[in-house]
Amino acid sequence: MSILAKLRIDPFLLGILATVACAAVLPARGEAAELLGWATKIAIAVLFLLYGARLEPREALAGLRHWRLHAAVLAATFVVFPLLGLALRVLVPSVLSEDLYTGVLFLCLVPSTVQSSIAFTSIARGNVAGAVVSASLSNLAGVFVTPLLVILLLNTTGEVRVSASAVLAIVVQLLLPFLAGQLLRPRLGWVLRRPPLLTVVDRGSVYLVVYAAFSAGVVQGIWKGLSAKDLLATVAVCAALLAVVLCATALGSRWLGFTRPDRIVMTFCGSKKSLATGLPMASVLFAGHAVGLIVLPLMLFHQIQLITCAALARRYARADQTEAAEPAIAR
Fold first, then answer.
1. Is there a contact between 261 and 126 (Cβ–Cβ < 8 Å)?
2. Which of 22, 113, 134, 225 could disulfide-pair with 272, CB 3.0 to 4.6 Å?
3. Do residues 245 and 314 lie in contact, with contact meaning Cβ atoms separated by under 8 Å?
4. Could you give the residue ranges of the DSSP H alpha helices within the chain?
5. Which pTM does this prediction carry?
């Protein structure tokens, strides 16, 4: 077992911290920043091409029959989260600055994760097929719903303005590669059989977007106003937000009468937010604004949700093993 595993440190988190440090020391400027922008767009397009290729159409059509589960996950992602984000407005300016609150509200508007939601559902012995469909639907819906929610909830504050061209840019950058992946699925089988390659593309695209966002922040000098107090306050708000949503999804799934495997799907898919999808959206929607500060809450929330959901998935798995062992002992 590696030292990182023993210390329970996520290498992905270390990679993001290293990327932020690199941006602080060697930010991209001028022509380098332009090349970085194009490289980031290409990496994100490849990522969503692989997302599209990974979704089995027949599996998706079969999973769509469980519409109550998917509707509940979408409601948690695009209704419960935004309402909580609006309620957090009371923390401005006493706890959160205007830019940090914009970031917190934005993280409440992005879709659920795909890869980690499915992985945690599998570890917890939940409905994996349901998680695949719910997470994929969330990302597809997010291409349209997230920009519209940003226009509705953030344009009214006067702090951020989002144009229709930004929404179109997101559709072109995310949805078209996804659809292309569906069409090219038979030809991309060799890629899908290599999980390490998928991980490199997934995490590499995130590193590129993080480096671009933080480089812009360094060049613009926006980090000079971020204090340790602001950072700790943002971490506390993100942790509290995740705790509330986890409780809401767990209780809501029981109230809806879902089976245990479906309750696991709603807990993991309904409480998570996608860094891979949210960062490129932010770079397009908030062009010209302090993107680095706006995406900071999303990055913090992403790491908190990974640590929390990993522990929660293991707890679900242990409980399932205990429940399966009790009838055997009774017999």
1. yes
2. 113
3. no
4. 3-7, 11-25, 30-54, 57-63, 67-75, 81-87, 98-107, 115-123, 128-154, 164-170, 176-183, 189-192, 195-220, 228-255, 260-271, 275-285, 291-330
5. 0.74
Other C-beta atoms within 10 Å of 256: how many?
14
Provide the pLDDT for residue 315: 86
The owner of tokens 């995130």 is 206
Cis check: omega of the bond before 93, within 30 degrees of 0: yes
Q: Which sign does the torsion angle of CA 120, 121, 123, 128 carry?
A: negative
198-226 in b/e form (b: 16+ CB < 10 A) is beebbbebbbbbbbbbbbbbbeeebbeeb
Structure tokens at 132: 């695949």
The residue whose two tokens read 């204090």 is 227
Q: Which residues of the chain have pLDDT under 70?
A: 1-10, 12-13, 55, 58-64, 115, 155-171, 174, 190-195, 202, 206, 213, 217, 220-225, 287-290, 320-331
Contacts (Cβ under 8 Å, ≥6 apart) of 223:
24, 217, 292, 293
Q: Are 265 and 126 in contact (CB under 8 A)?
A: yes
Largest CA distance in the chain: 72
Q: How many Å apart are CA 81 and CA 244, to the nearest integer?
A: 10
Structure tokens at 39: 């490289």
Structure tokens at 151: 């226009």
- Read off the DSSP letter of residue 61: H
Do residues 297 and 238 lie in contact, with contact meaning Cβ atoms separated by under 8 Å? yes
- Looking at residue 255, its amino acid is W
Residue recorded with tokens 């989260």? 81
Q: What is the pLDDT of residue 7?
A: 46
Residue in the block written with tokens 């038979």 = 186
